[in-house]
Amino acid sequence: MPKLLILPGSARRGSVNCKLAAVAAQLATEAGAEVELIDSNDYELPLFNQDLEDAEGLPPAAKELKAKFTAADAIVFVSPEYNSSITPLMKNFIDWVSRTETDDEPSLSAYRGKVAGLLSASPGALGGLRALVHLRSILGNIGVLVVPKQFALSGAPDKFDESGKLTDDSALKSVRGVIRDVISLATKLA
User: Fold this and answer.
1) 171-184 in b/e burial notation, b at 16+ Cβ within 10 A?
2) What share of the chain is helix, strand, coil (3-state, %, to 5)?
3) Which of 9, 105, 154, 163 gives a 20 to 30 Å CA spacing to 84?
4) TM spans, by residue (predicted)?
5) Which long-range contacts (C-beta less than 8 Å, at least 24 apart) are formed by 56-64?
6) What does the DSSP assignment read for 67-100?
7) What is the pLDDT of residues 149-171, one digit of tens each?
8) Which CATH class is domain 3-189?
9) Angle between helices 88-97 and 129-141 (to 10 degrees)
C-alpha cells in the first residue's frame, strides 16, 4: 500500500480543513495506506524569498517537510479558500518544497510523479471549490498527477460533531472516493 501525506493548508485552531484532513487520514488508514497527517503549526517557515534562500539555504522546517514529500507516494492537499484561491500557507509550503538543495538534484524532485488528491472545506456554499481550481493548476504544472475526483465541503462548520467526526454521510462518501482514487493510482504507479 502507498504512503500518503495529508497536508492541511490551515494552521488555525478549530479549522474545518484540519478536521477534514483528519477525516481523510482516518479513511486512508482504514483503507490500508501508511498515513502521516501533517500539523501545519509544526512547519513555521518564512515567506518564500529567493534572496533568503541564496543566503541561508532551505530553512530546517522546509528540509523536513520536503523529506516527507519525497518519501510519500501521494499527497492529499486539504486547502481552505482565501479570496477565491489557496491560502498563503499552502502556497508557501508548495514553494519551499519545490526548491533544490544541490546542483545535481533534479528540479521539482519532491513533486514529479507524485499522486495528489484535493479536498477543501468552507462555511460558504462552494466549499472552497475555487481554491481547488488554482491548486490543481499549480500541482499539474510542477509534475504532480492530480486525480480527477475532488471534494469541496460546503457549510462545513455544521458538518462535524464536537469530536471532529464528519456527520454528513454523503460528504464522507465523497472524501472516501477521493482517498480511494489516490490510493488506487499511487498503487498502480508504485
Assistant:
1) bbebbbbbbbbbbe
2) 45, 20, 35
3) 163
4) none
5) 57/101, 58/96, 58/99, 58/101, 59/96, 62/96, 62/97, 62/99, 63/101
6) HHHHH-SEEEEE---BTTB--HHHHHHHHHHT--
7) 999 999 999 999 999 999 999 99
8) alpha beta
9) 10
Predicted TM-score of the model (pTM): 0.97
Grid cell in block for residue 183: 490510493
Query: Degrees (nearest 5) of the Cα angle 119, 187, 108?
Result: 65
Which residue's C-alpha cell is 499549480? 138
- Residue whose grid cell is 488555525: 12
Q: Which residues contact 180 (CB under 8 A, 6 or more apart)?
A: 31
From 167, 184, 133, 181, select the one nearest 23 (Cα to Cα).
167
Set of cell numbers at residue 117: 488528491
For 42-73, write each residue's pLDDT tens digit: 999 999 999 999 999 999 999 999 999 999 99
Cell 454523503 -> residue: 170
